[in-house]
Design goal:
Elements (H helix, E strand, L loop, with lengths): L24 H36 L5 H30 L5 H11 L2 H22 L1 H4 L4 H25 E7 L2 E6 L6 H38 L13 H4 L7 H33 L7 H4 L1 H8 L3 H13 L1 H12 L10 H11 L5 H14 L1
Antiparallel strand pairs: 1-2
Keywords: Cell membrane, G-protein coupled receptor, Glycoprotein, Membrane, Receptor, Transducer, Transmembrane, Transmembrane helix
Subcellular location: Cell membrane
Protein name: Vasopressin V1a receptor-like isoform X1
Amino acid sequence: MSDDLNSTSSPPSASEQTPVDGRNEDLAKWEIALLTSIFLITLIGNTLVLLALYARKRRQRRKFSRMYFFILHLCIADLLTGLFDVLPQLAWDITFRFQGGAVLCKLIKFGQPFGIYLSSYILTVAAVDRYYAICHPFSYCSVTSRRSKMMVYVVWLLAVVLCVPQVFIFSYQEISPNVWDCWATFNVKYGERSYVTWYSVTQFLLPFIVLVYTYTRICITIWTSNKMSGVVDLRKGNKASFSQRNRDPFISKALINTVKQTIIVVILYIVTSTPFIGCQLWATWDPGAATSPFHTEAAFTILCLLNSLTSCINPWIYFAFNRELRSALTNLFFKRKDYSPAYDAVAQQNASDAASTTSSFISRISRLASSKIFG
């Protein structure tokens, strides 16, 4: 990332208003190495997930369940982040000054935040979907899979709309004599502060509020469910009895595993996005940020680069929590004849429910909601 732009995505920082022809070559080498690593891991990881999803769908010959539908679109969003955000920024760091001309400048600045917006809102939609599946199973049963898919398609459209301001803010201009670059221009007083704040709210704060609320409620519901089913006995302070341990929990283990996977993805998203958003807000709102030593140090630049880190780690989380994806990918590459797709854990749980006479009506309703996620 060049010294003129302090983020790998769209919002400009205060330093963009003061062109500097020189740069720290040692820091630039570290930036190029880091961006190259992030891009390659993102490309390889998300491509493997897409191949695994393709192999699974071809083997089972059925449509994606809600869980895999969300994973598919999150994977595509992460891949777009690598291609539209990390890769152009890597090329920009190598050349130092933007070499693509006026049209490519606007196209790249339009595409850089697209994958990040898309990933944030797909995570939000997935969180809302799981919230209703666990906390409101009765109403969730009446919600069709088509409605959840429509929400994802709306998110795609919303991400496009939110990227449009980039086209008007950035342009290819002469920042100093005979030095041209893709630069941000704000003709309105406090325009930069307003835009950076708007980006921070729409890309991070609003999804963050929804994610924290939904998964807090989900964790409380799961804890309460397990306590009621005899998995946890707080009053006695010891393990549940044999009869208690064999009582069916209200929330299926498969759904809990999916929630754990998503919570880890969400935590990673928060951990990697918070430093970037914090640095941008500080650089924009603090009048003394441009002259602060921290603003020109390597730590500031590296923290801004970490915004793309989640895109290269997400696919490995999917593989770690999903045995079926690992099996499908192994079969695709090694052509195992003895391979048979792993049954969904929820299907196995429902089979045991059919033979169980102790399962409650609420438990059955909850598993019905769970099955809508897993297909």
